[in-house]
Amino acid sequence: MTRTSNKLLSKFVALGCLALTVSGCAVADRLSDVGAAPALSSIANPTAQPGYQPVSLPMPTPERASYQPNSLWRSGARAFFKDQRASRIGDILTVRINIADEASVDNETSRTRTNSEDAGLDSFFGYEAALGSVLPEAVVAGSLADLDSASSSVGTGKVDRKEEIDLTVAAVVTQLLPNGNMVIEGRQEVRVNFEVRELLVSGVIRPEDITASNTVAHTQIAEARISYGGRGQITDVQQPRYGQQVFDILMPF
User: Fold this and answer.
1) Is 90 exceeded by the pLDDT of residue 93?
2) Which domain holds residue 126?
């Protein structure tokens, strides 16, 4: 066995050991949960979760508060009476998610092109007769070049997509921006028959968009991030095995 073959074999062995180590840890975790329902995540502060980053958006120029003597109106207030809508960090509001998207696109293109060119040199100061001594074969001066080309292209594309989600989830105000907008984040987990369904929603809302019933629509959330998925036995069966996933990533064909 050559040195190159040894190096190649060593690389495959190292890759195999790495795959076995990663899959071994995952398999060990899965084996420890055999016969048990998936564990629900503990309630925790969203701002303390790994990967959490405070939102930073362009803010308007701060305005100096002005107070009028003998006035019952509070500077900066959006209503005369205090309401119970979410307005501070830690307050809770309800997010209504009603997504009904449908898109259908059907495109078809067809192109055909044909070219034909003829070139000749019947008279060139009497030297046209000497072409036979220059070119490898006997030629006719009137038809020196005859070129033909043809091309054809056909393309077809079709998109047919339909999505429908109708859910509600409670979210917590995690941050107040200088212009009064609020950053919210909500998470909901439901476990049914060894399957956990997760609903995540986050984004930036305006206090004016919160209704009197302390709810806000998902269409009024800026930078909205909505995720609806699950984990458990059914989800696990629907996923390809680890070896197949690694093979699909590494296989170039």
Assistant:
1) yes
2) 106-158
